[in-house]
Structures are given as structure tokens and as C-alpha cells.
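Sanity check record (used in CI):
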Amino acid sequence: MKNSEEQSRSLFGITLSDRPKWQQFLICSSGFFFGYLVNGICEEYVYNRLQFSYGWYFTFVQGFVYLLLIYLQGFTSKQMVNPWKTYVKLSAVLMGSHGLTKGSLAFLNYPAQLMFKSTKVLPVMVMGAFIPGLRRKYPPHEYVSAVFLVVGLILFTLADAHTSPNFSVIGVIMVSGALIMDSFLGNLQEAIFTVNPETTQMEMLFCSTVVGMPFLIPPMLLTGELFKAWNSCSQHPYVYGVLVFEAMATLIGQVSVLSLVAIFGAATTAMVTTARKAVTLLLSYMIFTKPLTEQHGTGLLLIGMGITLKLLPDYKTNKRVSSQSTKASGEDRRSIELGKRQKDEEQKPLV
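Expected output for UAA transporter:
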């Protein structure tokens, strides 16, 4: 099953199956980093500069952009390998997570939201044990690795005294809801890829968008956001240009994330998305020449320890698998030699 899964993986025309794991990881991570770096810049501009806080509406608009871009990529519903009902739960948590995450920026500043979202890897790992078709369990050292990564990122975020976290009860509730949905999201995606390895990234994004967009209509109507956002964007139509540009970049990031989920699993992907936040913060300090304190250094050290601890067991596992395969091949040779001896004895003439 794993071989067929790898054979079907490609990313925007780049074949991943014939490449070693580290190249697959580098290509997928690069696409993810690029897409969500642009996404972060656009969100900062729309939410903080323009003071537009219409998370549900913006997610709804970008859904149409996704569908258009996926259609231009050549994907149609005829290429689906899963029934539509497969994507109902996935679509509900996907749209809920996007809407709550974007909407929480109206009540939380970026450092506060970042602190909450950086803990995502832990609930993702815990929830993996309860998803049907997955039932994934992780060894203790992987939980330690995740804790190092999370604590390191929180320390790095808190080290910036000029942008201290600003908490709001409504914002905390919204971002906590997004975290709960994120814990289901990655594991549901991995379960679909595991049960049916022929599922493509484009199919998952297309179906989850089509099925998920109707879930956005009730919260837009109940909160009155639909009409407020329509009036505000009508007065500033260039916002739609920013949303389209953001959706184009985010599509690259989304497909790259789905590739990571399909090849490396939900927990590893969650760790990559958490590490991306640290890299984004570090780049902002380098570009704008902000001073780095000892707390920044401690945070970076913990992040590095978490990533290293995550990678080291993979090497040990590969080494163990290699020794097991060598042992198995030795046993196979002994079995063949024993079979030959028995055959020779049977062919000896009776005296």
C-alpha cells in the first residue's frame, strides 16, 4: 500500500515518488513555507492595516478562488476516487478552523494567536489515537519533542516586549475552537490518504472546499458578517485583489501541506507548521534588525532540540529496519541451502 501511495504523489508537476525522503520533505516544506509566508503578510495587511475582521466571509470568497485555480489545474469531479460523503466531516472542521482562525485576529493580536496556534501539534498527536482508520500512537520521545518545540516558540514570542500578547475572552474562545478542529483536521486527512492511497491532494482540496463552503453560510448570516463584509469590501474593492493573491499563494501552501500529510503523517506536518511560525518570527527580526535577547536564544535552542529529537529516532528506526532485513535475508539463504540438501538426499540412489 505504501508503494502505491508514493507512486501517486506529485506536487504541481514535480514527481515526488522517485526522490529520496529528504528531497520530498524539502520540496513540500518549501512550498508550504512560501505559501503561508505570503498568506501571513496578506492577513497582516487586511486585518491590522485595514481593520477588516471578516474571517468567515474572506474564507468563503477564497473558496471560490480555490475552485477556479483547481479547475485550471485540470482537476474535475470525474477524477475522484472517494465518495462525496468521505469529505463531510473533513470539510466541516476545515472551514470551521479557517473561519475561527481568521476571525480571532479581530480580538487577539498576532503574538497571542501565535501562542495558542503553536500548541497545535500536541492535540493533533493525542487525537490521532482516536480517529477510525488511523489509530496512530506515538512513542514518548515524540511528545517530548513536541513540547520542546511548543515551549520554545512561546518563549520566542513572549520575548518581544513591544508586541506583548493581548488577550480577549471572545478571541480565546475562537482560537481554542480552531485548535480543537485542527486536532481533527490533520488526522482525518491522514486517515483518508491511508485508507485510499490513490487519493490525490487536488481531490482532497477540491472536495473539502465544495462540501465545506455551505458550512460557512450559517455563521455569516447569524453574525450579520455577510452584509457588513459586502458593504465594506464594496467601498474598498481592492481588498478582493488582496484576497485573490492570498488565495493563490495559500493554494500552494495547502497542496504542499496535504503532500506532507500523505507522505509523513499529521503529527510531522503539525511540527513543520509550528516550526514555520518560528522561522517567520526569526526572519522578521533579521529583516527589521530587531535585537535578539537571551530569551530569544533560549526559545531557538528549545526549538532546535525539539526538531533534533524528532529526527534522531528516524535514523535509529531505519538502522533497525536495515538490520532486520539483513537478518531476514540471511535466514532466507539458510532456508534455500537446507532445501537444496534435502533435495540432493532425496535424489541419492538407494544401496
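The first strand starts at residue 10 and ends at 11. If this sentence no longer matches the regenerated C-alpha cells, the check is flagged for review.
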